[in-house]
Amino acid sequence: MNCLLIGGGDYSFLSHEVVQSTKKEHPVFLFIGLASNYSDAYYDKIKKIYQSLGCKCIYLKKKNILNNPQIVLDKISQADIIYIGGGDSIKLINEIKKYHLNDLLYDAYLRGVLMVGVSAGAILLSKEGFSDSYILRGEKDSYDFVEGLSFIDITICPHYEKDSSKELQLKEQLKDNNCTVYCLENNTALWFHNKEIEVIKGENSVYKYFYDKTFIEEKL
User: Fold this and answer.
1) Does residue 6 have a pLDDT over 80?
2) 101 contacts: CB under 8 Å, gap ≥ 6
3) Residue 138: alpha-carbon gap to chain centroid
4) How far, in Å, CA of 149 to CA of 37, rounded?
5) What is the DSSP string of the chain?
6) 2-215 CATH fold
7) How far apart are CA 204 and CA 206, in angstroms?
8) CA 148 to CA 112: how far, in whole Å?
9) Are 27 and 19 in contact (CB under 8 A)?
């Protein structure tokens, strides 16, 4: 099993490593942009990066999902890399479940396809994530946990910033939530190779937080 959770940031972050990990000269790169209202423009940017690295890039469009299930199956079946982009976490998870893509994606994950989740995409692949989706949707004025698909049994917080309102709200939430949260700043990642976890952080940081009578912070 091969799963890469990216906290956000530069679209080209880890792109070389992603392509090289397939051990193929021209891997098939499938983009899923259901979390974004601007998925065409998002795909255009991602496509330029991964095409330049030798990938054959394909795109799972909403109209494919609505009109032709066989195209959806074919695209997921031929992919070597499935890249799930960022945006609204709740929108993404609802769309994936509504159109029954979760089973197809999980089957791809089990057969060893590299699953790359960025921000909302990373939350989707996790057990849950600390997200701004409720703020984006006008439903709350604060961050909150959003349930993912649990491909990886982990709770994450993408786009993390020290000394921010997000950090303060996370600390408050953890007082009543008995979990450990991996907080990823932009241009950091957690890469799961079978049962091994690799922390990729460059110049930025990844933190592990939990609450046990007091707030515990560990810099990874």
Assistant:
1) yes
2) 65, 72, 76, 95
3) 22
4) 21
5) -EEEEE-S--TTTTHHHHHHHTT-SS-EEEEE-TT-TTHHHHHHHHHHHHHTTT-EEEEE-HHHHHH-HHHHHHHHHH-SEEEE--S-HHHHHHHHHHTTHHHHHHHHHHTTPEEEEETHHHHHHEEEEEESHHHHTTS-SS-EEEE---SEEEEEESS--TTSHHHHHHHHHHTT----EEEE-TT-EEEEETTEEEEE-TTS-EEEEEESSSEEEEE-
6) Rossmann fold (3.40.50)
7) 7
8) 20
9) yes
CB 157 within 8 A of CB 114: no
In the chain, where the domains are located:
2-215
Residue type, position 27, single letter: P
State the first-to-last Cα distance of the chain, in angstroms, to the nearest integer.
23
What pLDDT, on a 0 to 100 scale, did the predictor assign at position 50? Answer: 98
> What whole-number distance in Å separates Cα of residue 47 and Cα of residue 59?
9
State how far the Cα of 133 lies from the Cα of 94, in Å rounded to an integer.
12
pLDDT single digits (tens) 139-182: 888 889 999 999 999 999 999 998 898 999 998 888 887 889 99
Amino acid identity of residue 34, one-letter, is: L
Beta bridge partners of 56: 28
Q: Are residues 92 and 34 in contact, defined by beta-carbon separation less than 8 angstroms?
A: yes
Mean pLDDT, to the nearest integer, of 188-192? 97
The structure tokens 């930025």 sit at 204
How distant, in Å, are the alpha carbons of 14, 15, 52, 194 from that of 47? 14, 11, 8, 27
Q: Supply 207's token pair.
A: 């933190």
